[in-house]
Amino acid sequence: MGFVRASHKNPILPHADTFDPNNLLSRGQEIQVDVAEEDKVSIELQPGQMSLHHGLMIHGSGPNSSDDRRIGAVIRYVTPDVALESGEKDFAIPVRGTDTLGNFLHYDPPNGYFSAKDLATYENIRVQQNKAQAARAVRELVYDKEA
User: Fold this and answer.
1) d(C-alpha 27, C-alpha 16), whole Å
2) Which of 28, 51, 108, 124 could form a disulfide with 23 if both were Cys (CB 3.0 to 4.6 A apart)?
3) What is the pTM of this model?
4) Helix H or strand E encompassing 132
5) Could you report the per-residue pLDDT of 12-21, keeping only the tens digit for each?
């Protein structure tokens, strides 16, 4: 896996949606900046290992050359005052404390493995997030054409 040294200190960088079927991300997002070779750091993860890194850290990996699937999971801890700039709400499981601001749609953590209720919750979240992403993409296209 490759990382860019100290990139977590940058603001969010410009991205492009490539929709590349070989990209693990939902829209094939890729950063649109040049990275100096001397700032790149590579590590080799062994089977069963994982990487934990800051959400702004520029990172990526080459093709999966194993016979097994590659799994990506994202966990973000945020305070209740964080909100999407688009005005839409995202889903969250409260970890502690009380959310008095209402910036998130709360849901309960899973009760077990693949229960019907948990799968229905997952499907609802997936559908709602896809709608929000599609609406943002349309707004970005309209904005780009007007600019």
Assistant:
1) 9
2) 28
3) 0.61
4) helix 116-146
5) 888 888 888 8
